[in-house]
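Page 42, continued from yesterday. The earlier attempt failed because a stray header line got pasted into the input along with the sequence. Redoing it now with the clean sequence only.
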Amino acid sequence: MEPIVDPRIERYAEAHSSRTTELLTRLENETRATMRSPQMLTGPSEGHFLRLLVSISGARRVVEVGTFTGYSALMMASALPEDGELITCEVNPEVEVVARRYFAESEDGHKIRIVMGPALETLSRLEGPFDLAFVDADKENYPRYYERLMELIRPGGLIAVDNALWSGEVLDPRDDESRAIHRLNEILRDDPRVDHVLVTIRDGIHLIQKRHDIR
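This time it went through. C-alpha cells are written below.
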C-alpha cells in the first residue's frame, strides 16, 4: 500500500518535532534494514505523539497490543514515571529478540514487560485498570481488542488504535483487514461509552477516551 502522507511532509514533520534519542534512531535504522515489513515501525512522528499522550494523561499503566521491534513501547515508557508499567503483547519471536535487546539498553527498559502469545489470550489474563492502551497488531482482531480493552481501561482512560485509515482502504473495504478496521470505526461512531476522534496522523489514529461515567 502507498503511504497516506507525502514522504516529504513526513520528513518535514519529523524535523520540526522533538528530537529522537540516539537509541531510537539506531532501532529505527536496524528495523528498516533487517525486518521483512519495516513499514510496521511506528516511527518518530507517531512515536512522539504517543509519548505526549502518556505524558499529558499522567498514565502510570499502559498496555500495548503489538510490540514489533519495540519503538512505540520505548517511546511511551520514556514518559512513564519511574515506577510505571508498560505491558506489551507480541507473537513473533524474531522481533521479540530485537525489542528485548533495545529494552535492555534503554534506561526505561525496566518499565516494559513483553508477554509472548496471542494478544487476545494475554489480554484475557490481565487485570486492570490501565490508563492507556495502544493497538497496532493484526487488523482482523481490532474489534475484539477494542471490546476487551474497554473492560481493562479505567474511566477517563485512553485507547489509541493505529492504521485506522489503512492507506485509504477503509473507504472501499475489499479484504478482511480493511473490513475489520472499517467495522471498528463504525462501532466507535455509534458507541455511547466513548468520546473519540479519527485523526489523520500517518495512516490514521483513532483516539478514544472511555467516558468518565462508564465503569
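Notes: The helical segments are 7-15, 22-34, 44-57, 71-77, 93-105, 119-125, 142-152, 176-189.
Reminder to self: strip header lines before submitting.
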